[in-house]
Each structure stands twice: as C-alpha cells, then as structure tokens.
Amino acid sequence: MGLDHRLNHINEPEERLELAKILDLVDLANRRKVISFSHFLSPLIVSLAEPILKRCGDISYSVEGGYPEAERNMLAIYPDYHLGILDFPMCRLRMDVKSTSNQRITHRDYLGAILSLGISRDYLGDIVVLNDNSAIVVLSREIQPYVAMNLINIGRHLVFVEETSSIQGCATGYEDILCSLSSLRLDVVVANAFGTSRRQAESLIRSESVKVQWRTLSKPGAVVGMNSYISCRHYGRIKLMEVLSVSKKNKMKVMIRKFI
Asked: Can you tell me the distance from the alpha carbon of 185 to that of 183, in angstroms, rounded to the nearest whole number?
C-alpha cells in the first residue's frame, strides 16, 4: 500500500495493474535482498516502469529481451550493491516448419500456435522470423520443455523445435514498403498499410482493434507521428519510418516497416 502513491499518475487500469506487479518485485528485492524477475513486458510497460524504478531507493534494475533489438523484455530488480551476472530466466527456441507449399509462415502463425497450447502471452518474448519457414522464439525458461514437447504443428505444417543459443538474421523479420498517403491520419495510415478500405479502417479503429505505441486508440482522425508502432488485430503490425517526399498536391511518400 505504501507504494500506491507512485502510480497516481497512471490512469489506465491495466497499466496500473502491471506496474503494481513490478512494484511488488521492488518490495521483494528490498525486503529479502534478492534478485526478482518480471515476466515479459511490452515496451509501453517498460517505458512507464523505468521512471518509477529510478525513484525507488536502494534498488537497481536491468532490462533484457534475449537480443539487442528485442521489443518485449524482462526486468530484473535487485539490491543496488549487486555486482554479479544476472541470469535472466529465458531461453530461445528455433522453429523450422516443414512446408511443401510456397506459403509464408508469419509471426502471427507462430504466436497463434504457441498460444493454442494454453501459454500466456506474459511468458513469451519476441518472435523473430528468419525466413519463410523458420523463426526463433524467446520465452520463459520454465515453459521451454512444455513448448518443445507439445508444439508439433504450425497451422497444418509439421514443425521441428530445438533450443538455440543465439538469434541471427533478425533483420529479415520485416519488409519496408512505400505508401502514398494523403495525410498521417490514423485511418489513412491503417487503410494503406494493411490494405483495407478507409471505411474498414475507421471501423477497426472505433472497435478498439488498433493500437498506437501499444495503447488502444479509437479516434480515426488522430494524427500519427513518425517512428510510431501501429498494430491492428488480425492484420499485423507496422512502424512509420519516414516521409521521403511530398508532392505538389501534398501527397506524402512514406516508408512503412511491415513486420512479417
């Protein structure tokens, strides 16, 4: 209860709940003088947690997601005098799909197959798609044996799973595309990036199926800034990279990173 005041500036109930769990780890680290690890956290929660953690006396923290560019990360919280190596409870599984078709296996396919085993998203870090038929999944060490034993198929295709010590080729997990946009309104960006009509995009946004910077945004006319991540339920995720040029009719040529 003594730490509740630290969350007074957080208005969203889900965010308050996640941050309260992190403050419980702070209390544990202070009281028992131990290292406490969180589950995997979204970039939004990490960004909200870091200023709070910096104001907590007598503790330090580290962030790790299994590779330098990781989006989903664990937090380690520990007494500030700790100087040892932090053994984050995570591992990496390589998944190779045996497909006889030319169908690309996407991030959504891997995620759906793992979640169908009854695994909570909290136990999963990033899924790095290496090519059309391979990916590496970062996950909590405690569920590694269960996933390795029970994940047999990705969709209709057989998958072989083995532990690996590194992630290579992570840059192949996306493709950069050019879009011509009349504005940076959210509905315009969603329609062009995900191949929907403007009306469909508006409906998706109003039904709270779209997140910008990991927060649900339900206003179709909201203006999206550069370097923003946008995810759309059942469609995938993109990042606005840069405006390359503007025509005389104010049409913008925008580089968009589409995650596979």
From this structure: 6
- Report, as an integer, the average pLDDT of 177-182: 93
* Residue among 33, 25, 82, 30 nearest 57 (CA): 30
Name the CATH code of domain 173-259 (choices 3.10.290.10, 3.30.360.10, 3.40.190.80, 3.40.50.20): 3.10.290.10
Q: pLDDT tens digits for 77-127?
A: 999 888 788 999 999 999 999 976 777 888 889 999 999 999 999 999 999
CB 92 within 8 A of CB 164: yes
Q: Please state the pTM of the whole predicted model.
A: 0.78
Check residue 2 and give its pLDDT. 47
Whole-angstrom Cα distance, residue 249 to residue 180?
A: 12
DSSP class per residue in 41-64: B-HHHHHHHHHHHHTSTTEEEEEE
> 51-70, pLDDT tens digit by residue?
999 988 889 999 999 988 88
CATH node for 90-168? 3.30.70.330
> Based on the number of CB atoms within 10 Å of its own CB, is 151 exposed (0-12), middle (13-18) or buried (19 or more)?
buried
9-79 under CATH 3.20.70.20, yes or no? no
Q: What is the pLDDT at residue 83?
A: 79
d(CA 230, CA 215): 9
Q: What is the CA radius of gyration of the chain?
A: 20
Residue given tokens 């969709």 in the structure block: 155
Phi, psi at residue 201, to the nearest 5°?
-60, -45
DSSP state of 258: E
